[in-house]
Design goal:
Length: 844
């Protein structure tokens, strides 16, 4: 496989003035006619005419009306062309029904749809399929389908024929086409300057009752982007389509967003509160891409974080505004630690802006997305809100209609603030999570914090340099009052001290408030200080963090010795449970324990080899101890979380249900599932139903309810995904592999559907002790299925290989077992480029 390097970037030698596409749809033999006006770019010396194209049958090609005979390879074609503007025409034939990779034009449940990012357009026709080639598209669709959609505004629409024109120049990765027997959930929106926009969510018949929430989320997103970023929508229509077979969450195609149905369809009966929140965030994310991604796009795929980091940052601001800011921040950090830290600390570590790749689809990662968003959060914290707003205005004004780089992005900040951002830029080029050690001194009324930062070297970054770290610090007095309000310390050196003078007594520091930088903070302290901060910290994030640290530390010692659960932790949690002044959602987050994989990482970092069974046992013991410790308050919590009003998927109600669910999980450990069974029977929404079922399964009960759940929901694909996943996630360690194996034999296990595959095999990899079962059967089952899926759907296969990325944490026996599976996958004949790259990076 060839490796592509950022340093080799070279512009294309031609401008594309316009693109006309005509599709004659047919499941096995779709014809695509293209008419593309090229103009040589005199500023580019290399004017080789290369068009990407894969799996295309070329029927005919013409230049200015004359038939030509291009040189065709697996990757595309070259052809002699004039040195003056010319019109390229081609007719190709493709096979949407045979396209199981779900990239390019494919079929899902009888409808046609497309996925072109990153490099899927080349499976539709010959084209310079690179994001810096932007053009105006007109698309004509012919086919016997009531609904025919593409980007932009409709010019003609009728049964069997439609023409769409998109006036905004765009790269081919934003192209989309949808055709099928679809129903619309319509609405409309008037933009800030008074322009009407027709909105539609298109679904297959039967799903029309699940669109209302997504539509509200869309309208809220449109308003928010006007109010907060001054960004107005720019077409007459905005369409969203729900598709069952989709490799990821959703796609921001211009004016025609295509969504995995799990990321848009919801009703109270079938979707959980977590589903609703995720849907609201993804709709916002894709909508926000209209400006950050579409109007301003990426010069090349190395710049992916330019649009993804910024858009994730924007959607997290949106969720904070719509819901609770502290709860959103804590959830984001939980997610960052669960998904990005393992990547950054293992063999797949790469910078936020990678410098090389073999398959770009392997770089749609938590590092590019979530760490990319953290970097923007740090930048905003360093320059301040006003300068951030000014820099963004300049970015939009200067770069609208362009394909840009991280250099362009940082330049607007440098210009607005006068700052030298060259050191800050290392956040984009260095892999690895910095570890920040803190020491303190107290002398004559001066309290000094000394920080040292160290980023562990990795294959991607062998010699890491000090980063700019915004470290938010506040100081508390002995009674819990804040003696110094939050201040952002700007650390730039490897070791640096900050002094706080004129203090009456030694304070208790609250460090890294709001998780102001994505680092691992190392502070040797005792449980008493953690408990103090858990009770008193005025920063909501750090208050939660104190409880999290207590939980982590007690679990680590329980997993490695015969230590009993820490009393400070149990008392602290009891106080949290009793504190009705705290937001229920926040209390629910406080009660959640660190994940077992996160504990394994912490143990490995502290120098011991994690034992998955011991971690599981410690986690069970701690939950049981908490249940017993809190048994007197749990009934009151449960009663207080009961909701009499009709279901609303908003933050208030969701928070109560989350706290009620956390309490029910504890109660189930004391009452053998009586109350969970009662909640299951009475539930009139999916959150309560699924929470109750989950409690029962984790107690080793609920067989009857599980069967009933299947019967009740067997016709609802999204709910049955939950049914597959929950059984595996909640299985005891010695049952998980067997359960997953049984389910892969179930009549409803459609392994070619990514959602179902992930619900089954992805869930197995998330059951930490189950996946890492000592005989290696978890590894073998996953490897078997990855080998089977690879020729059918390389993207989903490659993505799921990351289940193995943490393998070097474990003992020698497990490492050998995992290595054997990785080598078995690597040795599979004709393994895809996607999976080959992932396995070779993981093997190191
Ligand atoms: N931009 C798409 C992701 C495309 C993934 C290609 N493998 C969705 C998003 O980030 O909004
Ligand atoms: Zn995105």
């Amino acid at each position: 496989p060839t490796t592509i390097y950022l340093k080799d970037y070279a512009p294309f030698g031609f401008h594309v003035e316009s693109v006309h596409l005509t599709f004659e749809l047919d499941p096995r033999a779709t014809r695509v006619h293209s008419r593309i006006a090229f103009r040589p770019d005199p500023d580019v010396a290399d004017r080789r005419f290369f068009l990407h194209g894969e799996n295309l049958s070329l029927i005919v090609a013409r230049i200015d009306g004359e038939t030509v005979a291009p040189d065709i390879t697996d990757a595309g074609l070259t052809c002699a062309v004039p040195d003056t503007p010319f019109v390229w025409e081609a007719e190709v034939q493709i096979d949407p029904a045979g396209n199981t990779a779900l990239e390019g034009l494919y079929m899902s449940g009888g409808m046609y749809c497309t996925q072109c990012e990153a490099e899927g357009f080349r499976k539709i026709t010959y084209y310079p399929d690179r994001p810096d080639v932007m053009s105006v598209f007109t698309v004509e669709i012919k086919g016997p389908h009531p609904v025919l959609l593409s980007n932009g505004n409709p010019q003609q629409q009728g049964e069997g024929h439609a023409i769409w024109h998109d006036p905004w120049p765009k790269p081919a990765y934003l192209f989309a086409l949808v055709a099928g027997d679809l129903l619309a959930h319509p609405d409309s929106f008037t933009t800030c300057s008074g322009k009407p926009v027709d909105l539609n969510i298109w679904v297959r018949p039967g799903d029309e009752g699940k669109c209302a929430f997504g539509m509200e989320a869309l309208k809220k997103s449109m308003r928010w982007d006007e109010e907060v970023y001054g960004r107005e929508y720019d077409l007459d229509v905005f369409n969203i389509v729900a598709v069952d077979d989709f490799n990821m969450g959703a796609m921001e195609n211009k004016g025609l967003n295509v969504f995995n149905s799990s990321a848009v369809l919801a009703s109270p009966e079938t979707a959980t509160d977590a589903n609703f929140e995720r849907i609201e965030a993804i709709i916002a994310h894709e909508y926000f891409h209209n400006w950050t991604g579409n109007r301003i796009t990426c010069r090349d795929w190395f710049q992916l974080c330019l649009k993804e980091g910024l858009t994730v940052y924007r959607d997290s601001q949106f969720t904070s505004d719509m819901r609770s800011a502290p709860v959103k921040r804590i959830s984001d950090v939980i997610d960052l630690r669960a998904r990005q830290f393992p990547e950054d600390q293992g063999p797949l570590a790469h910078p936020v802006r990678p410098e090389s790749f073999q398959e770009i689809n392997n770089f749609y990662t938590a590092t590019v997305y979530e760490k990319g968003a953290e970097v923007i959060g740090m930048l905003k914290r360093l320059v301040g809100d006003a300068a951030y707003a000014e820099a963004l205005d300049l970015y939009f004004a200067r770069h609208d209609g362009q394909a840009c780089t991280i250099e362009d992005w940082l330049a607007v900040f440098a210009e607005v603030t006068g700052r030298d951002l060259s050191q800050f830029k290392r956040w984009y080029s260095q892999a690895g999570t910095p570890r920040v050690h803190v020491a303190e001194t107290w002398e004559n009324g001066t309290y000094t914090l000394t920080f040292s930062q160290k980023t562990p070297p990795s294959a991607a970054t062998p010699d890491p340099q000090p980063l700019v770290l915004p470290i938010d610090v506040g100081l508390l007095g002995a009674n819990g009052d804040e003696v110094r309000a939050t201040e952002t310390l700007e650390m730039t050196e490897a070791t640096q001290s900050f002094a706080f003078e004129g203090l009456a007594a030694k304070p208790v520091p609250s460090i890294l408030r709001g998780f102001s930088a994505p680092v691992v903070l190392e502070r040797e302290t005792d449980a008493a200080e953690r408990a103090f901060l858990l009770a008193h910290d005025t920063d909501a994030f750090n208050r939660w963090e104190a409880g999290r640290a207590l939980a982590r530390e007690t679990l680590m010692s329980m997993a490695t010795s015969d230590a009993a659960p820490d009393a400070d932790y149990l008392d602290g949690m009891l106080a949290v449970l009793r504190d009705d002044g705290l937001d229920p959602a926040y209390r629910a987050l406080m009660l959640a324990q660190p994940g077992q994989s996160e504990l394994a990482a912490a143990l490995a970092q502290s120098g011991s080899t994690p034992d998955p069974d011991a971690i599981w046992q410690a986690s069970e013991t701690l939950k049981q101890a908490l249940a017993q410790h809190a048994q007197d308050v749990l009934p009151r919590i449960l009663a207080g979380c009961r909701i009499e009003e009709p279901f609303r998927p908003d933050a208030d109600q969701a928070g109560k249900r989350a706290l009620g669910g956390a309490a029910l999980a504890l109660v189930t450990r004391l009452d053998s599932g009586a109350q969970a069974a009662a909640q299951y029977d009475a539930a009139d929404n999916m959150t309560l139903q699924l929470t109750a079922l989950s409690c029962l399964l984790s107690a080793g009960k609920g067989a009857e309810q599980l069967a009933g759940f299947y019967d009740q929901w067997k016709l609802d694909r999204l709910v049955i995904d939950k049914w597959f996943g929950l059984q595996i996630v909640q299985a005891a360690p010695d049952q998980a592999v067997g359960t997953a194996r049984d389910l892969t034999g179930h009549a409803d296990f459609n392994w070619q559907n990514p959602n179902r595959f992930r619900a089954t095999l992805g869930s197995l990899s998330m059951n930490h002790a189950g996946f890492h079962t000592a005989d290696g059967s978890g590894y073998a089952v996953l490897a078997d299925w990855l080998i089977k899926l690879d020729p059918v759907n390389p993207q989903t296969t490659a993505r799921m290989c990351s289940a193995f990325q943490t393998w070097k944490r474990y003992d020698a026996v497990r490492q050998d077992l995992i290595r054997a599976q990785l080598e078995r996958i690597a040795a599979t004949p004709d393994l895809s480029r996607d999976t080959t790259e992932m396995i070779s990076r993981i093997l190191g």
